[in-house]
Please model this.
Amino acid sequence: MTSLTLVRRIRARPSIVFEALTKADGIAQWWGPDAGPVLLAETDVRIGGRFRVRFRLLDGTEHESAGEFLEIVEPKRLVMSWQWTDGGEPDEAGEVSRIEFDLKRIDTGTEITFTHARLRTEVSRASHEQGWAGAFDKLERRFSTEHFA
Amino acid sequence: MTSEAAVCIVHYMVNYRGRQLDRTFAALVDGTRRAILARLEREDSATVSELAKPFAIKLPAVMKHLDVLYDAGLISRSKAGRVVTVRIQPEPMREAMDWLRRYERFWSKSFDRLAAFAESKERAATKKRR
Model:
């Protein structure tokens, strides 16, 4: 099982980051790929509880995603199922993915390790750590410069 | 073509692409298979015995990995006499990377704003405590 992994350091303590990830008024401040507004954010933060986020992109299109809280360990870990319920990626209709946030306290605040996995199976953390990203970078360079230029 | 048939075809294509992506990601989970692909990416093509050389595992095990990569559409094989030459197939890989890039963009941009928001909250909390 393979997935996208991002690591980010934030100058805020884990409890503040965790709140921003789980509270509706927090999510409304950041969710979405451009500066367009979040139109609706709902969270029911308990195992099996749902969340729903609707946002508008700067191009005017609206998109909505929803899912379920699968694991909640405040303020350390959060796992949710996730899918597009309106708009989003046409290729991804009906696909359920799994997103995970791991929050680690560091001197300067919080280190978030985020994964987004297509398949709803356990994410193999080991495979990410073994230079997976590096392998992809190389392949990406080749494909973008030679095959698809 | 009737519109129902068109809808069915579109549906099929979406599902097909989804399955292809899942196969690609499943095939790529293994370190040996990723190493094989990385080498094919550098060298364009290689024979099976050339591919097997750097690995401590035996030839039949390498063959099994190649079967998985072949079934996932990530490589092609051609045979000349007793020599099997393996090449990388770029399309499924390109789709997998499109998926990763798309969501990398989505989440990176989101996290920029998450960081800005959480950091402003942190500053406000620190100020209040003083």
About this structure: Helices of chain A lie at 14-22, 24-27, 125-129, 132-147. The longest helix of chain A spans residues 132-147. Strands of chain A lie at 3-10, 38-43, 50-56, 62-73, 77-86, 97-106, 109-117. The longest strand of chain A covers residues 62-73.
